[in-house]
Amino acid sequence: MAxxxxxxxxxxxxxxxxxxxxxxxxxxxxxxPAKKMWLLPKEEVDWILAQSNxxxxxxxxxxKRANPSLVPSPEEEKDESTMLLYACVRxxxxxxxxxxxxxAWVRGEYARKGFVEVDYDYFGERxxxxxxxxxxxxxxxxxxxxxxxxxxxxxxWKLFIREIRRTxx
Length: 169
Fold this sequence. Notes:
By secondary structure, this protein is mainly alpha-helical.
């Protein structure tokens, strides 16, 4: 039986050698070990997928329609509250775009695998967001933490706080 000799181009040969040297030659630094992945709870997947595409306040949408670039005019730059509004609107739309991208990724993962895995950093970042949100809420609404002694007021307060958390967290 005749042997068949396979010709390998010098480029392919060099790449193959570089690939083996990456394993043997200590170039592991270029390829850090894979992070441990954790299953995202089904309830959280459901919540992520159920979010609407644009839950921004009406005032923000109106400003964006009137000024799509969200760059204030020189006259508007003189008003500190208007500048703060522009900053909030820009941030809101940036975060909404990030979330829409994340939501699309979650949707794709769930459709393909039937579950979603995230690295442990996801949970740390989420905990940090919750902490910052709680601190900001305490700073702004802390003086309302102790409603009157009426049970009705207390229950209304709890419902209000739950609604705020559901809306902004």
